[in-house]
Design a protein that fits this description.
Helix content is 32%, strand content 11%. The protein is of the alpha+beta class. The protein has 10 helices and 12 strands. Strand 5 and strand 6 (283-286) form a beta hairpin.
């Protein structure tokens, strides 16, 4: 084991967060970004819940506030009185060790508290948190909890957009979230090339020294066979060729569970793709309204099943998360993130440089790796142990972030995870193959 690997394997994630002094600026910035994402909404939009997997924007605003009230203020402020006695029940998500919770599928039924009441809740907690932060005397353990809360809020910033997109998509009025969220035009799609890697014994996971979720630790050794990783994500044009070759009607391309889902739901295209009449060009619903499918854009809103079927059709496979991190990890974490305001994958702007291109931003990339603990994994202490570890079953890992992900939230070691049938996230794929 190398010295760097040994150090990260024995580091405590609680020692690796942002210094307490930096939280005085970071806390209000993250909280303001959440409100900015809800600013284009009408008051009627805040309560929209279109499926059990999604939550209303109003709930996201309150739940992220509940996190700081529950895990910070209630534990360190002497004699703290909750803002409202029922908010703990209404806005707890899945923390069984904290208490009971309102059923997730019924969050859209909560006409009360009102949006104005939730905004007052945020104002109140923000004031209390700012007083706490400016007073200082925040030890490393408390700073760690606050930093987790800020990254937790950034996860919900992405969910606000993906949940709203799904809700707007089922409305015959075709609401537009923000008309000015245009995507830059790109050139032609460069041919897919391959990054060769000889494999061998490599290191995977967070090195330590800055923030990482507990599921990114410890850094550990992994043995890889030689492999090749594609230079760019799969595009809409690539995927249209799969569809034209009867990809959704060929059971030999699909995992058994995936074929059952395709038959059950009648999938014929990625989520949000539609056409007025058979034979007409495909269009897609976006947060800027309905627009034509653009060949050069990375394809998104695919389930793991669809990504895997495309890879089989192509004669390739999905990469493992170790392969993805090894090749893409050294790249700068720059790309089409939520700060760009496009809220949609963008065509590759310059394919002349060495790849891999668009490793970060645009679309989350499915891997073939099960979301499981790294060897030696230790969850966070107390109730926050429920944050990641309890979901390490029946889910697959995605890497790289998307056009709805905050840039400061992303790292090369970040492990997102969803069940294989999920498609409402901005999820796409990059191919891998064996030499």
């Amino acid at each position: 084991m190398s010295a760097s690997l040994d150090a990260a394997a024995h580091a405590s994630p609680g020692d690796l967060w942002t210094p307490a002094a930096d939280l005085v600026q970071r806390y209000p910035a993250v909280r303001a970004a959440t409100r900015a994402l809800t600013a284009p909404l009408e008051v009627e939009d805040y309560g929209l819940q279109s499926m059990p997997d999604a939550s209303p924007a109003k709930w996201h605003l309150a739940h992220t506030t509940w996190f700081f009230e529950t895990f910070v203020l209630a534990r360190v402020v002497a004699g703290y009185t909750p803002f409202h006695p029922r908010f703990g029940f209404l806005f707890n998500s899945y923390y069984e060790t904290v208490g009971r919770m309102h059923p997730r599928p019924q969050r859209g039924l909560l006409t009360r508290p009102t949006v104005e009441h939730v905004q007052r809740y945020r104002d109140h907690i923000d004031h209390e948190m700012q007083v706490l932060l400016e007073r200082g005397n925040i030890d490393a353990e408390l700073a760690a909890v606050i930093e987790v809360g800020l990254h937790h809020e950034q996860q919900h910033q992405e969910l606000i957009l993906t949940d709203l997109k799904h809700g707007f998509s089922v409305n015959p009025m075709r609401p537009v979230y923000r008309e000015d969220s245009a995507v830059a035009a790109g050139g032609g799609v460069p041919p897919m090339s391959w990054h060769e890697h000889p494999g061998g014994l490599i290191e995977l996971g967070h090195r330590g020294g800055d923030f990482g979720f507990d599921n990114e630790f410890p850094r550990h050794a992994v043995y890889l066979r030689p492999f090749r990783l594609a230079s760019r994500p799969v595009t809409c044009g690539d995927y249209l060729a799969f569809m034209a070759d009867d990809g959704y009607r060929r059971p030999e391309l699909w995992l058994s569970a995936g074929w059952q889902v395709v038959q059950q739901h009648g999938w014929q295209a990625p989520l949000y793709w539609e056409r007025a009449e058979p034979g007409q060009p495909w269009q897609q619903f976006t947060l800027a309204g309905v627009r034509p499918v653009v060949d050069a854009e990375p394809v998104c809103h695919l389930s793991l099943y669809e990504a895997d079927a495309f890879a089989r059709w192509h004669g390739s496979r999905l990469p493992t998360e170790a392969e993805w991190e090894l090749v893409c990890g050294p790249r700068p974490v720059r790309g089409n993130f939520v700060e760009q305001g496009a809220f949609h994958p963008a065509p590759l702007q310059d394919g002349s440089r060495p790849g891999p291109h668009q490793a970060f931003g645009d679309v989350w990339e499915w891997t073939s790796s099960a979301y499981a603990p790294y060897p030696g994994f230790r969850p966070l202490d107390g109730s926050l142990a429920e944050y990641n570890g309890k979901f390490m079953c029946n889910q697959l890992v995605l890497r790289g972030g998307s056009c709805a992900t905050p840039a400061s939230h992303m790292r090369a070691t970040y492990r997102n995870f969803f069940p294989p049938e999920a498609r409402w996230q901005f999820s796409g794929l990059r191919l891998a193959t064996d030499p």
